[in-house]
Design brief:
By secondary structure, the chain is mostly helical. About 40% of the residues lie in helices and about 5% in strands.
């Protein structure tokens, strides 16, 4: 049975959420353990005073004067990043994932300009290993996934 707008009925949404929630919780637990298992490996702090906090733009002549280095912060300063699941995850309804409120909202015509959705987003669901490597390259100390 389908509801208005071609979305799955509330019964099928609830059934798919049960299995999907456990999979997401397991993924987040494993992902958190990987990130927390070795802070020095993940943060890449071999020479914190020289590590750039952003990538330089070769076309910008004033880049050096605007470069932020870890040495500008206290030794115990924690550099962190955060993401929002809907904005990066993607994988709409894959592997038993249930609908989120945003999934329902963005699939109603007229709610979002140009009909944009997070069905693919940044595709973190499929590219999470690449994303972990990017966190490593950035040298962050903390990561929050919500």
């Amino acid at each position: 049975r389908k509801s208005l707008g071609g979305n799955p009925s509330s019964e099928s949404v609830m059934a798919s959420k049960e299995g999907g929630t456990l999979q997401i919780q397991a993924f987040l637990l494993v992902f958190s353990l990987i990130l927390l298992s070795s802070p020095n490996k993940i943060s890449g702090r071999k020479s914190p005073e020289n590590r750039l906090c952003h990538q330089q733009n070769e076309d910008d002549n004033e880049e050096e004067s605007r470069t932020i280095r870890r040495s500008m912060f206290p030794d115990d300063f924690i550099f962190g990043v955060a993401t929002s699941a809907y904005q990066i995850e993607g994988a709409y309804l894959e592997d038993g994932k249930g609908l989120s409120n945003w999934d329902v909202f963005t699939h109603v015509p007229g709610n979002v300009p140009h009909g944009d959705t997070g069905d693919v987003a940044d595709d973190h669901y499929h590219r999470y290993m690449e994303d972990i490597e990017n966190l490593h390259k950035l040298g962050v100390d903390a990561y929050r996934f919500s």
